[in-house]
Every structure is written in C-alpha cells, then in structure tokens.
Specification:
alpha+beta, globular, DUF397, DUF397 domain-containing protein
Length: 70
C-alpha cells in the first residue's frame, strides 16, 4: 500500500547507523499502527505502509538472508 501522510504531520524518519552516504538504504518511520518505508535517496518514489505483521515478516526475511543476491 502506498501511504500519503497528512500535510501537517511530521514523521521521524530513521536510517540504519551502519549505512553510508553512497550505499543503497531505506528509511523507516512509525505512523500510528503502521511502519512506513521509503528509499533514502529518492523520497519522491513513494512509500510503503506495512502493518505490524508485515513489518515483522520483512525484518525476519532480511535477517535470515533470504533476500541476499536477488
């Protein structure tokens, strides 16, 4: 789902501290019950809005390495 936040709401975007300036990375922000995910270098590309179950599943496959090399 693509999320379009209210114009007046400020989100606290966070990026992994291990990511460098030139590396591919995403940023995340909490928005009520959702976790928003965006490309750290292309904010205009849009956002993904994940519920808590989807967020936990994404983190699990990232940590397991299932997405490496794809």
């Amino acid at each position: 789902m693509v999320y379009r936040p209210d114009q007046g709401r400020t989100l606290n975007w966070r990026k992994a501290s291990a990511s460098g300036e030139g590396q591919d990375c995403v940023e995340v922000a909490a928005a009520g019950p959702s976790v928003l995910v965006r490309d750290s270098h292309d904010h205009a590309a849009g956002l993904l809005s994940l519920n808590s179950t989807q967020w936990r599943a994404l983190v699990r496959v990232i940590r397991s390495g299932e997405l490496d090399g794809r």
